[in-house]
Task: structure prediction
Amino acid sequence: MSVDNDFSAVRTRLRNELAAYLARPHRTKKHQDRARSLVHALFQQSRKDKVDGWVLLEALPTDNGATTASQLKGALRDQLVKQQGNRCCYCRRWLVNTAYARPIEHILPRTSYPQFSLHFWNLAVACTDCNSVKSDAIWGRIDPRRLNYPLPNHINAWFHPRFHDYDQHIRYVRLESNETTVIVYQARTGQGKALCNSLLRHIAAKEMLIANNPTLSSFVASVNECGDRFDGAKAQKLREFQDELNASVARMIDG
Result:
């Protein structure tokens, strides 16, 4: 397949994915028109004013009928998870069926690219580990002043989970026994190598460290189970604790 034909196929797929999302931007049918209008308005405001649309979304009043931030995020997450086959967009591990364990990932971080914070192409679903390790890291050289999202054929130096076919760029093996877990990621392209170096090697090392330490594994599982039990300040404190736990594990890995 030529480069032009490949780009055309990707563009068609992306348009179909957007159409599928816009056909059901809310889990309840009677609220879909309102949700569609609201999402469009927030996207236009974010792009025009270069403001973080995620902040605008989260500022919606909680008594705004059924079109609250939680409801809109839930429908978006449903569509993205379906597209990804219920696997993390980066490490391809199965996603746990709770909202906290399936954060919506901003591929170009909203701290540096607020105008893309609600762009459908810029959103995916990652596991908490990948989302935490990647954080606000900027991959590639995309001008932060641009208003149009880069096209798939403009991103060649790094892996974009919405644009690129994972299997073409990365192979992975995960072996588990009663006592041992082994994970290996192997790059097949330059884009795959960039993802392995910047993210996947850390994810594999962390998973093996925790999985092969029964005490640590049990503790981490207990903490993660609390993810959806708290709201507000308690949820923020839990996230801060988990971030510090992840940082501690990262320091152990880096030696």
About this structure: The beta strands are 104-106, 123-125, 170-176, 181-187. The chain has a mean pLDDT of 87.
